[in-house]
Amino acid sequence: MKSAIYTQSLSKNYGEIKAVDGIDLAVPTGIIFGFLGKNGAGKTTTIRLLAGLAKPSAGEGWVDGESILDGKNLAHKIGYLPEEPAFYGWMTPIEYLDYVGSLFRIPTDERKDRIDKLLNRLGLTKPAKRRIGGFSRGMRQRLGLAQALINKPSVLLLDEPASALDPSGRKEVLDMIVSLRGTHTVFMSTHILADAERVCDRIAIIDRGKILIEAAQPELKSDFSIPVFEIESAPEDQEIFSSWISQLVSEPWVEDVQLTGTVGRVKVTDSDIANQTILPMMVAAGFRLNRYEVVRPSLEDIFLRLVEKEESK
Amino acid sequence: MIFFSSLRKELMELVRTSKLIIMLAVMVAFGLASPLMARYTPEILSLIPETAILAEIIPEPTLLDAISQFMENTYQFGFILGILLTMGSFVKEKDLGTASMILVKPISRSTFILAKFLALAISFLVSIIIASLGAYYYSTILFAPPELTAWILMTLVLWLLILVYVALTLAFSTLSGSQALGAGVSFGMMLVFSLLGFLPSLKPFSPTYLMTWAGNQFLNSTLRAGNAVNGWPSLLVSLGIITVSLIISSITLKNQEF
Questions:
Q1: pTM for the full predicted model
Q2: Which chain A residues are within 8 Å of B257, Cβ to Cβ?
Q3: Number of domains in chain B
Q4: Does the CB of A253 have a partner CB in chain B at under 8 Å?
Q5: Residue range of the domain that includes B143
Q6: How does pLDDT run across B154-194, given as a tens digit for each residue?
Q7: How many CA atoms lie within 13 A of A118 on its CB side?
């Protein structure tokens, strides 16, 4: 499959600090790609490099076949939305989109048509003639998406597009991003794992400028699926239950046991043995069972595990 | 098309943020006030008992006084406005993040900065022309009609001088990334130009010598008493400063990251 974004050993240093450290990426066309990392991990720098706003210290990158060093051609391929989009407060959304559209040499009639459609799609028709200066954060983010889409780019680079929004604003923006799947390649950075889990097809986790892992979301979850067995006893049998679960730690197939009230979480190293052994053991222990569940790890579990492992090195 | 779109945006910004109005108000106010002040200062002084004595020793005001006042006022306030209105035009955009959202579009960085300069140049030209027309009108009523060619030359010279400071402020603010530094260096350059006026061999190369040149045109036309003043070196230096400053701004911007 053709890569919409491709980088080879992409690096960016600020003095001694390696903000981006030899990143190799191949983002397939038409997907929503989540770029996950803690604050300061290198997400924004990577997006600035891909947008041509910063120059790499080493390595190269291409967006839809255009080198990230070739600013003018690159500009036609991308739509860019920074974390906190800044506009000319004295302009109206129509004026801003018209100005941005004219920079792409879009003919006046077509520009007008595109602006109308974008304002309508992003729910900005009503405030279209109001000054941007009075806009809420959510409205600014939607206008930011509109300006990023005005040139019908093949690749959208979105830096934390929903992080600063309230739940309803976040839902609106994420729904909008989902609607772009297939027609655009979306490369979005976020530190909100739930957002990535909700909308992204593939995910890369970055920490201290390095990519720790990159895979399709289901693949990532299955690769890292060390099942956790969640067991809940009846409150009357809490004593028997806690005594039984604390003894589990000594089993060779158990990695960790956590107990909170009547709920125990058993992290195992071998799910096959665990599946065969846990149920008979519970029956033998003789407590009444309220719930028994095999829990798949969330993206957050995977993220924390990978980052903690990297940081302990 | 891209350059005109950018220029249109810059001009719109000057209008919507009231910068053009401020520019017009200041320039026109001092343009109109100059011949009035030249004409009526002795009379005003004579009405105040403490300063009446001064009115007696002040010579009868002439057209040259009105012209001289107009030139000095326009230069001083134009220079201040030039620095104040230019110092944030790029740096503020960079700090706020509006520049990065525009510079990822297919607009060259030279176009971005040149549009800013040209918008300021047009605004100053409009302001100076209106101020100049007002001053010309009052000078004619209160004294005598000034020589038109010399008046036009003076207006253009004043405009060019202000553009020297606009270009310098733009270059140094872009280079340093600081509004204050950009303004400070331009102010320093104004002092350097003034000091050059005390060095006879270098004086003709200072941009401020343009005012001596323009003033001399009036002396020639009004009193037929002017000295032989060659303003061309000063004109070339001024144009050179503007060109080099704009090149520095463009190159600096091309190498900057956002």
A1: 0.86
A2: 48, 53-55
A3: 1
A4: no
A5: 2-254
A6: 999 999 999 999 999 999 999 999 999 999 999 999 999 99
A7: 24
